[in-house]
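User: Hey, my collaborator sent me this sequence without any context and asked if I could get a structure. I don't really work with proteins. Can you help?
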Amino acid sequence: MSLRTSRCESDGLPVETVDAVVIGGGAAGLNGALTSARSRRSVVVTDSRIPPHVPARRDIGA
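Assistant: No problem. I've predicted the 3D structure and written it out in structure-token form, which is a compact way to encode the shape of the chain:
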């Protein structure tokens, strides 16, 4: 089973300076971005769009 992600349109990056760049759109990254945004900071979140718990290609235990 292979995992393929398709390229999609995304929001353009801002031209001006931002206060924070969050790398990773998981629970911790989004929580940090939300907390920063609530504090009136400009935030950019980047993510690879690869789902975290992808099944292994084969069983390595044997």
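In plain terms: The chain has one helix and two strands. You can pass these tokens on to your collaborator as they are.
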